[in-house]
Amino acid sequence: MKRSLFGAALLLLLAPLAASARGILASPVQLGLAAPPGGAASDVVKVSSSKEESNRIRALLLDFTKDEMGRIQVLQDGENPRSCKGWLTLDRVDFLTPEQGSVEVRVTAHVPPEARGSYWALLALEVLPPPRSEGSGTGVVFIPRVAIPVIVTASGTEERSLQVEGFRAAYNGAEVVAELSVRNTGNAALLLQGAFTVEKPGAEGALPEEVASDEPDPQTAYPGARLRIRGKVNLPLPVPGLTAHAYFRFGPEPSQAVEASSEVEGLPSAPPEGGRLAPPAPAPAPPSGREK
Amino acid sequence: MNRTLKLLALSTLVLALPTGLLAAGGGLHVGASPQQSTTTLTVTIPGVVGIDIETDLTWDFSSYPAPSPTTCADDAFPPSPACTSINYYPNQETTTAGTPGAAPSDNAIYMSLFCNKNTGTIDVQAMVGAWNSGTPGFNTTDFQIQRDSANNAQNVGPATWTNLASALTTIGAGNLNTLGKFPWTRADQLFRIYLPSAGITFNEGTYTTTATFQISKA
Question: Quick one: DSSP state of residue B69?
Fold first, then answer.
């Protein structure tokens, strides 16, 4: 039977159920587990609703990598050579969060005897929509999801090594934007904690003096991967000759730190006058040929 | 602070993290008056991220008006034969009653993001799934989003209309700097269906797909 467009118009419906709020909170934002090869370790992730409502949550384990800006890229099975997805078990994968309080999801890692260094997988916690009732059409069902990296380290086998690949700092008129590029050349995930500072030269024979600093959030460097750490150092009174420094530590030993320094690009060529930047020098007037 | 001292300070900080858990307070103090006793007040702030979506959207094609046969307009069904591209905006938006803050704009979903630290760098990704069954004649990747100019102070989401991908793709990243008391920040997204070509067969029925919005700490 040939159907009319009008008939189609009546039946082509992309419609949702009644509005159903969906929100999720999870803590911590990253889970680290350590056990010797052949051993096991576990910890919990707390999951709650974003407001007083009960939500149905599904927990998934996925493979992932991170790009150099720290963004997660979900991978297909087998694409991450250092995946620990197969080592992980969850004590619950489909559950309800209460209207108040939280639910703990226990993540347990069974580390194989041959494991060396760190391995990782992604714990994805997503809010499931309510069941679709018969005869009601749903256009787009929104699924809020929180992604939590789980890093498992075979303790006693870690090789911690970090290499600086570049450092650049530039003044943008209000702040110094600093970027440190590092590569984790070991086999263990490293938590990098540190600061960017801007220093001015000291007086004759004196040490440089720090004028401003910024401490970015700790970031994780994955084995074999490059990581760019960015910071913004507020600099209301720029002066020529400033240098920027990056100091980042990945362990308590003196050798477990990196530092880099660079001149700050884009600074004004003249120091500020009376606390204000000197106006730029006027451009030379073009030759007019009528000057006397 | 010079470089050596800075590295030393950072070293102390790293060491202080686990040993801080050993702090103890209180205790019995005996001796001449006056006596003082102290207590240790410990505050622990966990790292938390969260996401909340409070709006559902409807595309009810039976509610779109039929256009003149010679004009090509958005939100008109059935489309004129002359149309080579057309947009369908949702014709029903339902946001949960009692949701805090301003109501979302027309065609937008209420989305809010949380990070415990308002300078924390977060990564927001989005994807669209397959149709639950059958097909209405166009693809789920014909859904487009654009960040709303209202209720999205951190500019999370694409600046121009962008098709949702079938795999998670970053749509916004940055700091969750907010003016609020707690670092929830709105990141509302506009939605539409963009049908780029003529010759689409519209299959009658009702169809479902999922749009996933993922947050993580970068």
Answer: T
Q: Please report residues of B whose CB lies closer than 8 A to that of A15.
A: 58-60, 92, 206
Are residues B142 and B192 in contact, defined by beta-carbon separation less than 8 angstroms? no
Q: What share of chain A is helix, strand, coil (3-state, %, to 5)?
A: 5, 50, 45
Six-digit token string for B48: 């938390």
The rounded distance, in Å, linking the Cα atoms of A27 and A17 is 30
pTM: 0.81
Pairing, β B55-60 against β B92-95? antiparallel
Tell if the CB–CB gap between A29 and B216 is shorter than 8 Å.
yes
* Binary contact (A138, B121; C-beta < 8 A): no
Can you tell me the distance from the alpha carbon of A282 to that of A285, in angstroms, rounded to the nearest whole number? 9
Whole-angstrom distance, CA of residue A109 vs CA of residue A12: 48
b/e map of A207-245 (b: 16 or more CB within 10 Å)? Answer: ebebbbbbebbbbbbbbebbbebebbbebeebbeebebb
Side-chain half-sphere CA neighbours of A176 within 13 A? 35
| A26-52 per-position pLDDT tens digit | 999 999 999 999 999 999 999 999 888
Contacts (Cβ under 8 Å, ≥6 apart) of B202: A5, A8, A12, B61, B77, B78, B136, B137
Residue A75 Cα, gap to closest chain B Cα (Å): 10
